[in-house]
Design brief:
2 domains; 422 residues; single chain; DUF2851; alpha/beta; 6-stranded mixed β-sheet; DUF2851 family protein
């Protein structure tokens, strides 16, 4: 048993409240069970109770056992001096305040119906993947759809937070912020941090000025990530080195040490050379990328924005000096979908939020136009008959699995709470 189950029992009064007594036999009447704030200090604030003939106003603390009070060192914390009732599942010792008075104790196990406990035990019993996997198929669709929307916006808020923070650090230079997060997502999981560090190290004004010549922009991006090697023999990398050195001198750029991108564990189309060439092409073709990203409202229009390929050298190379068969190496539809999910939508959400504008419904509809993501988590949910029709569904379900199921937060999950009612 976990304390959050007892919090749920107390908060929603899932026990017999008519004949409550303390372990010493004093009658208890709950006038107000208090506010469940989920922060440091007692569990429920500003409760009102009548214990015996006395009315009390104060806080309620909840534990599995009474002795947990001392296990958590509450006896040395002044924040717990105004606890008026100690609610426990099992009473095993008296608890004394710092002023030597005894705190009344309610032992819940005597007042909770067996069915409530059985439902909780079923929800938290042995599992192969998540606790409620056997009950998912029976879940009310209305509950699931409402919960998915909240999960989606929780995930969106989390993704938008670093965007908002960088915007504040750059005095609202949203074009620079967009460049940084696009670079990060062009780098995918392995090279994302390296590409992000590279983008942050470059003044966006320089990126903008050099974007009119795609070779200059490739030189800037590849030189800043340490991919340009003096030992290369082809004319093109030698030309990029010359261009990079000139750009650094012209703009008096401060060189920042950045770890070299990884080639290992990447398919050739995801090599950092290819992704940086594509990023350079994107900013070469669209000098006003920021305004387009903010205003376009259909997936088709966004696909057109990202319909770019690599420069001519990279159509016949994956690395410097090693020629390969010719391939355009355009951004794939699935890669653009990832950019929309992980960059475009969080960026637009963060930007609108900074301006006090409401775009939630618009972004939700945009994501519903994208196909569902494919990964092991989503396949598992589909196995347990959870409908998955768009990227909106997959984003919500990823939030559910990673933030709730993995952390056993069944009592904060609408699915878990609904199943407890059965």
């Amino acid at each position: 048993m976990k304390e959050d189950f007892l919090h749920h029992i107390w908060q929603f009064k899932k026990f017999d409240i008519q004949n409550l007594t303390t372990v010493k036999g004093e009658p208890i009447e709950i006038i107000n069970s208090g506010q469940y704030l989920q922060q440091s200090g007692p569990d429920f604030f500003n409760a009102q109770l009548r214990i015996g003939s006395q009315t009390w106003a104060g806080n309620v603390e909840i534990h599995i056992k009474s002795s947990d009070w001392y296990l958590h060192s509450h006896e040395r914390d002044a924040a717990y001096d105004n606890v008026i009732l100690h609610v426990v599942w099992e009473h095993d010792t008296e608890v004394i305040r710092q002023d030597t008075t005894e705190i009344p104790v309610l032992e819940l196990k005597n007042y909770v119906e067996a069915q409530v406990l059985n439902n909780y035990n079923a929800l938290s019993s042995a599992k192969t993947w998540i606790y409620c996997e056997k009950e998912l198929e029976t879940l009310n669709s209305f509950v699931l759809e409402n919960w998915k929307e909240r999960l989606f916006f929780e995930r969106l808020e989390r993704k938008a937070l670093p965007i908002v923070q960088l915007a504040a650090a750059t005095n609202g230079d949203w074009e620079a912020v967009l460049f940084c997060f696009l670079a990060k997502n062009f780098g995918l999981n392995i090279n994302g941090d390296t590409f992000y560090a590279m983008a942050k190290s470059l003044p966006f004004s320089v990126v903008r000025k050099e974007s009119f010549e795609v070779e200059n922009l490739e030189a800037l991006l590849m030189g800043s990530t340490g991919l340009l090697d003096d030992k290369c023999e082809d004319f093109y990398p030698k030309d990029l080195i010359t261009r990079y050195n000139y750009i650094v001198t012209k703009h008096r750029l401060e060189l920042v040490h950045i770890n070299k991108p990884e080639f290992f564990r990447h398919r050739p189309d995801n090599f950092p050379t290819i992704r940086l060439s594509q990023l350079a092409q994107l900013y070469h073709v669209h000098q006003n990328l920021f305004s387009k990203i903010i205003t376009l409202n259909t997936v088709e229009d966004i696909y057109k924005i990202f319909s770019i390929t690599v420069s001519s050298y990279w159509q016949t190379h994956y690395t410097f000096d090693k020629e390969s068969s010719k391939k355009r190496k355009a951004l794939t539809k699935s890669f653009i979908d990832l950019l929309i999910i992980n960059t475009v939508i969080p960026f637009r959400f963060a930007y609108a939020k900074s301006r006090g504008e409401e775009t939630s419904e618009e972004l939700l509809q945009l994501l519903q136009q994208l196909p569902p993501e494919k990964n092991s988590i989503i396949e598992k949910f589909k196995h347990y008959k959870i409908p998955v029709t768009s990227a909106y569904d997959t984003q919500a379900l990823l939030q559910l699995k990673n933030e709730y199921c993995n952390n056993k937060r069944c009592m904060q999950c609408s699915i878990g709470l609904e199943l407890l009612k059965k």
